[in-house]
Amino acid sequence: MEIERKFLLRALPPLFETLEGAAIEQGYLAAEPDGRQVRLRKKGASLFLAAKRPREGFSRDEAEIALTPAQFATLWPLTAGRRLTKTRFEVPLGDLTVEIDVYGGSHQGLVVAEVEFESEAGARAFAPPAWFADEISTRPEYSNRNLARE
Asked: Are the C-beta atoms of 123 and 56 separated by less than 8 Å?
């Protein structure tokens, strides 16, 4: 189960420039309008296939499996035309972690923060810090599956 909220940023958090980011390449094998998706992700040496169901509130079911380099190389060409690149930075915020994604390619300049929670109640109770701007959790134009199509 994935429980998350997503935000644009008003500013980068304190000490952001001291963080080391991880390059991510992401491609979609399937991306349905209702939110169902199957995607590939390369983050450093980690290679994954993930399948997600549509959202219900801030939650959705997610299944993720590790792939070998050969499996990833076989599947990656099938994502042509549905890919994106970003660099992810992890910022501690109390007992939570904010994942800040800085997009590249055709989305150069887009910066988004995601926060994952243990429960729906925790997600609803979350008070964003001052450096967060608009919430985009339910705005389809900011979903990675839609950004990968542009």
From this structure: no
For 86-141, the pLDDT digits (tens) are: 999 999 999 999 999 999 999 999 999 999 999 999 999 999 999 999 999 989 89
- Which CATH superfamily hosts domain 2-147? Hypothetical Protein Pfu-838710-001 (2.40.320.10)
For this structure, is 142 an active site residue? no
Domain ranges, ordered by start, for the chain: 2-147
- The residue count of the chain comes to 150
Q: Are 65 and 29 in contact (CB under 8 A)?
A: no
Sign, CA dihedral 68-71-74-75, equals negative
The answer to whether 111 and 8 are in contact (CB under 8 A) is yes
Give 150's pLDDT tier (boundaries 50, 70, 90). low
The single residue of 7, 27, 28, 107 carrying the catalytic annotation is: 28
The helix/strand/coil state of 17 is helix
Q: DSSP letter at 44?
A: T
- CA angle in degrees (0–180, nearest 5) for 95-39-36: 85
